[in-house]
Amino acid sequence: MPNPPPAWVQALKPAGPQGSELLAHERAQSNVAVDRLAELLHTKAALERQQRILGLLQPEKVFDKSQNHSLGRVDRIQRSLAKGKRLQQLAEQYKWTTEEVLTANELVGEPTPYGLHSTMFLVTLREQGTPEQHKLFLERAQKYEIVGCYAQTELGHGSNVRGLETTATYNPDDKTFTINSPTLTASKWWIGSLGRTANHAVVMAQLYVGGKNLGPHPFVVQIRDMQTHQPLENVYVGDIGPKFGYNTMDNGFLLFNNHKIPHVNMLARFTRVDKETNQYVRPASPSLLYGTMTWVRSSIVLQAGGVLARGVTIAVRYCAVRRQFQDREATEPKGENQVLNYKMVQVRLLPLLAAMYALHFTGRGMMKLYDENQNRMKAASQPDQDNRGAGPEQLRAGADFLADLHATSCGLKALASTTAGEGLEVCRRACGGHGYSSYSGIGPWYSDYLPTLTWEGDNYMLTQQVARYLLKSARAVLSGKAPSNDTCQILQSYLDRREKGASFDVLEVDSDIVAAFAWRTAHLTFEALKHRDVENRSWNSLLVDFWRLSTAHSQYLVVKNFYEAVSSPQLAAAVDSETLGLLHKLFRLHALHTLEREASEFFTSSAVTTRQIGLARTNAVMKLLDEVRPHAVRLVDAWKIPDWQLDSSLGRYNGEVYPDLFRRASQENPVNDLVFDPYPWNENVLKNGAPKSKL
Amino acid sequence: MPNPPPAWVQALKPAGPQGSELLAHERAQSNVAVDRLAELLHTKAALERQQRILGLLQPEKVFDKSQNHSLGRVDRIQRSLAKGKRLQQLAEQYKWTTEEVLTANELVGEPTPYGLHSTMFLVTLREQGTPEQHKLFLERAQKYEIVGCYAQTELGHGSNVRGLETTATYNPDDKTFTINSPTLTASKWWIGSLGRTANHAVVMAQLYVGGKNLGPHPFVVQIRDMQTHQPLENVYVGDIGPKFGYNTMDNGFLLFNNHKIPHVNMLARFTRVDKETNQYVRPASPSLLYGTMTWVRSSIVLQAGGVLARGVTIAVRYCAVRRQFQDREATEPKGENQVLNYKMVQVRLLPLLAAMYALHFTGRGMMKLYDENQNRMKAASQPDQDNRGAGPEQLRAGADFLADLHATSCGLKALASTTAGEGLEVCRRACGGHGYSSYSGIGPWYSDYLPTLTWEGDNYMLTQQVARYLLKSARAVLSGKAPSNDTCQILQSYLDRREKGASFDVLEVDSDIVAAFAWRTAHLTFEALKHRDVENRSWNSLLVDFWRLSTAHSQYLVVKNFYEAVSSPQLAAAVDSETLGLLHKLFRLHALHTLEREASEFFTSSAVTTRQIGLARTNAVMKLLDEVRPHAVRLVDAWKIPDWQLDSSLGRYNGEVYPDLFRRASQENPVNDLVFDPYPWNENVLKNGAPKSKL
């Protein structure tokens, strides 16, 4: 690294007022109860945990972040494996809980090559393995003796799992399976932790028994030697190359040339091939797996709030420090104006500030529903106090509940991850030129987050499932046989009221805002149903309508969850009335800004009038921006994202933006070790030995 | 690099039908005259030039692109300087014209450290230097004896040039200037070619003469030794570090500690400090510089079409090769369906296909206006045949024309670069999971393109200039003193017709579409004027309205330019009627899709009815997607972007997507040279020596 700058440079300070002064002023002008709000968002225990683990990680050299953005993939992935190893050592040393491991990973802030081992590989073994298989694979995997991955996606096959080409053929003679890749497109692809790290993989393959295809099933397959870590014979495996982000992960490819594995390697909790009869035994209860997907998607919703919070924290703090142009019409002119005072900046950032709260509370709501469902299922599968099992009524209600939860989680996963991903980019651009520097901390994070829009169900594909569910619900409502869930209720009340019209007072009554969003969903649902069932239009021709419908429904769910959260007695008990009032304003800002952005659907459905939309934009939203503005810095402070996690010069808690940018550029930037030879007639690019200038 | 894969892997082919067959089928089903269309878009000479230069560059090892996405910044920037040197050598050897140099740079596809030397540095010397300064600086710079950059932006100052802090104080005693950086935020920042390459800089600094601040002026400052390339004393200079993209450029910082430069180093074509009197001499004709900015922005509009074409070419070809799910309702079921057949994919990609044509023709139109303006100015400054100079009438008309062109170029620069930048990301996501691979070619290009949204006027800032111009025009129209340009005409005809209403037939009559866009602009202009002049609302409170207004106006300009291009006799003469008809459909697709996306502004302005909007969406746009779909591949082929330039496995002309992805992952990916030690209890991350597994 370069020498420290000369004394005359070290003596320079930014032109005043300093960033620290500006942020101190921001914090002084608001009474938001930062600590109480933080505990409400994260719990006291989680905040304490974060501080404790931060104290362990930050001093260790292995976790140094300063070179992350300058290094190439070969260096980065090796450093990341070293981080993963050290994290695992610490986890053993301190006997970390799952939550503590998660916290540590979040603070480190990059995927490590163990990422898929510690999540999907272990989860799949746990959920789909028999006790015998747990002993054989899971226990060793938990100790990292076996390092694994989950190999489903193929080079030619993403969302369509039924189209997978890898085969697993049962051999009745020796009771084994032969795993094979018949084509190049059958190559497993994108598999995290596979490229260089894993020695085992759970491979999803088309099971063939007696010549019959029984669909995709999971198999545990050893792929590398436990000692040399070289691929086994008839296994071709490697890393798939550089990516837009996620470059510290070894996403891999995998091909098999008729590779034999033992009978015990087919994960057999739900389905199996009987060794005695050589017959396939059908699945028992696939709905349990349904539950896992729902859990994963719900956690993506919750996480989306936190992801967005990272970008908004950086952008809000920096826009309070950055000043540009004088406001000649301002009443007290005093040098250049804070960028955060400009309406064009506010209208981009403050609705995202509101959205991060909205997504957080929605994710919480989803998690609660998921827990309810798990308890319900547990209750249904066990005899009750009177020693009776669940009756058919209860089972049907459970299935209805799960179907609703499943559709909800699909739509919200798509909406939340799109909002967070695109929101990060809005935050980055709101930082102006410096947003483009890696030291902003937003760009690298955006790049790493983007896969979330594709995995666990591509965001566009998922919208079809939501639409299918809404159409089904609408048919049930029309036939008078609807279950009593929220979805059917909003469809029913739309039908009841359709003739007399809506006339919601969205500008004055908060619950009317929620009702207007419900109305729009119902309107779009019955429109789509007419296209499908009456006009018999093809599924393909309706995909765009379905996407709009799913988005509308998911926006309704977020608005409803946010409204319920800010209206709950728990919240009123947890924070002071001023903070509570501000959270209500965030709700209105989120809802009315969304309403205005989607204006045309709201008034073609007659949920509101064009006059109301106009007023929502020019009056309500603009006024809310004014009201939220003074509290913006405290509202991001309440998320308590440590500077070390943000890794951002622009988003530093203390506002020392420019000294930090300068320090990193001049002191942590390896490019400054190079001395170029700038003359095109000299072949060498670096200045070596004798001067060669023509002058 | 790894060994070639074993024979059994090499024998594998993708599952059929092959990508080459699918693209051959696509090309067979359309009659679009690819070559004639290509000549129309680019000219025959440009296509020939591209082929010739491609033939020179592609075989040279120095231009190899295979490691671009795996290397770190230190390696990448050195390789890029080597490319820059070699390009300069070739330029001298083959005596390349400016156009040939541009073509070579576009084919190489990355900024090199010479980027700002060869553009802004040379241009500034040329335009703002005296003949003496041309001899002293420009001639040597053209020979690369002097290597320079253009240093305007500072750490604390971007768009607001008047806020720059660097000072240049005139010393009457020895007729020198002292350049100084009084604060840390005065550090020059983001300056391309400065960090490691330049030995000179044009520095924009606040000129002080006799204690008086005369605003920012340009000075030529030597910053590094010509022999050792080390920074001069009292100069602190370096690279600003890693960025979201553009990492092959050494954007730099620069600080001065009272650094003295000779009198001749102030660029003095327009303003100067007289050595005899020690007095500042005022600028002669600043409008010439105005013209340069207009030219740069117009070229960004033209380039935006080409940038978008790159993403659309990749996505359209890949979506024709990629297949997913069966369409169970299709009349001829035959395996999985091409992704391009899904309406949800079409609605994302085909309007972008239309937009790239729209932007291209608009950029062409802008360039033509720019040339007209240059000719007009030249004519006005020279005596005409009758030996008379330009009269006051002509001068005023010229100023009006330039003001209109300036506003147009501001708004279109913002709209075009935003459309291209965001469109690239839409293309990347439309490629599904593989879009995330660097081998898609879209992500790296997107990252490198993003600065265009900020430089040459931040896209949000620019919209204020457009709005200011429209308000001024509206006031002129109301006062009856408007110049006779298109902007004033559309405002006037809106006023004339406002009472009786619009009733444009956008679904049937193409010229009515253009009129509806003009109507919306005019409506928003007079709304904004009312807020400003009647309601006296503050400028800040109207920024969001101004941004909407600028966007609306710029969309009108694109729609109008596209319409004029497809209706022109030149076009009708250049291509067959089938291709011509298709270009008309692209016009309608672009315009109606935009209209539908901005629906609420169109019907609150009463330009169209809600019924028309509904029909535009469900009927017109959907039908146009069907009609354009079969020609999509040929319509991107016509842009003739060579595979080597695209650098994309997904967008290959021959459709061999999967073999190419596989080849690059397995053969060009240096991560596959690493053998990990996967066990967390071993500190080393690479497998060295004796096996250490616990098993």
Automatic annotation (TrEMBL), chains A, B:
PANTHER family: ELECTRON TRANSPORT OXIDOREDUCTASE, PEROXISOMAL ACYL-COENZYME A OXIDASE 1
InterPro entries listed in its UniProt record: ACOX_C_alpha1, Acyl-CoA_ox_N, Acyl-CoA_Oxase/DH_mid-dom, Acyl-CoA_Oxase/DH_mid-dom_sf, Acyl-CoA_oxidase, Acyl-CoA_oxidase_C, AcylCo_DH-like_C, AcylCoA_DH/ox_N_sf
Alphabetized UniProt keyword annotations: FAD, Fatty acid metabolism, Flavoprotein, Lipid metabolism, Oxidoreductase, Peroxisome
GO biological process: fatty acid beta-oxidation using acyl-CoA oxidase; lipid homeostasis
Pathway membership, UniProt: Lipid metabolism; peroxisomal fatty acid beta-oxidation
Localisation: Peroxisome
Protein name (Swiss-Prot/TrEMBL): Acyl-coenzyme A oxidase
Cofactor annotation: FAD
Binding site for FAD: T153, G192
Native source species: Aspergillus cristatus (Chinese Fuzhuan brick tea-fermentation fungus)
Main location: other
Superkingdom, taxonomy of origin: Eukaryota
Record flagged with keyword Hydrolase: no
Residue intervals of the Acyl-CoA oxidase C-alpha1 domain: 290-471
Residues annotated as domain Acyl-coenzyme A oxidase N-terminal: 34-147
Molecular function, one GO term: acyl-CoA oxidase activity
GO CC term, one of those recorded: peroxisome
Start and end residues of each Acyl-CoA oxidase/dehydrogenase middle domain: 149-258
Domain Acyl-CoA oxidase C-terminal: 512-676
Active site positions: E456 (proton acceptor)
